[in-house]
Automatic annotation (TrEMBL), chains A, B:
Enzyme Commission (EC) number: 5.1.99.1
Protein name as it appears in the record: methylmalonyl-CoA epimerase
UniProt record, GO biological process: L-methylmalonyl-CoA metabolic process
Higher taxonomy: Bacteria, Pseudomonadati, Pseudomonadota, Alphaproteobacteria, Hyphomicrobiales
GO MF, any single term: methylmalonyl-CoA epimerase activity
Length: 134, 134
């Protein structure tokens, strides 16, 4: 079921400063910033060749990463995203095994325009897991 | 400078239980466990096709992940590892920019038999970063 690692998301308090760390200090390829108001974040993508790092800064009043940054004011690894071929089949299999899918259990359209789900960190080794239909 | 994402490491309190989550619940390809006493961890590798997830369990009295697991008893994302072509050139560039290299600043041989360094999380968005010479 589990496919490629689509990305690792790192929440940051200051996206321009964070992008500069990856671009200038680490010498990485960093995209321009994109505001995604429907997801409550502004994001830059770092292309590592085989996968992506996404740096996320809160956008708006109800950003889903605000609480995380209150606990981790310098930033930190927020979630990993794995690709699956069929997100509804993956959801059904996971729920049948007792794993908790966040929200109402229905996929929504993620930052890449594809259906995504998030899984409860307590069921996945303290790690917030996103699944994205590839 | 920054190359491929070599792996994401997740620290876990119980490696067999964690391997079962990835193998049975998520349907991933999970290796047999390998004890790495010189690194203070036992590890399993998950092959996602494009990169690896490493699940780490403490091994021995002075494991480098014990303190992390005391703060995160369910487990959690511990570090990311990026490949570089020349680890000494990377270290020199990073130190010249003011970034802190952990330990005595000299590479040691990592879990894959290649030279590695760790960078201070406070200089990299709250994320512990490993560099591995590819």
């Amino acid at each position: 079921m589990l496919g490629r690692l689509n990305h690792v998301a790192i929440a940051v308090p200051d996206l321009q400063a964070a992008a500069a760390v990856y671009r200038d200090t680490l010498g990485a390829r960093v995209s321009a910033a994109q505001a995604l108001p429907e997801h409550g974040v502004t994001v830059v993508f770092i292309d590592t060749g085989n996968t992506k790092i996404e740096l996320l800064e809160p956008l708006g009043e109800a950003s889903p990463i605000t609480a995380f940054l209150e606990k981790n004011p310098s930033g930190g690894m927020h979630h990993v995203c794995y690709e699956v071929d069929d997100i509804l089949a993956a959801r059904d299999r996971l729920q049948a095994s007792g794993a908790r899918v966040l929200g109402d259990g229905n996929p929504r359209i993620g930052a890449h325009g594809k259906p995504v789900l998030f899984l409860h960190p307590k069921d996945f080794l303290g790690t917030l897991v996103e699944l994205e239909q590839a």
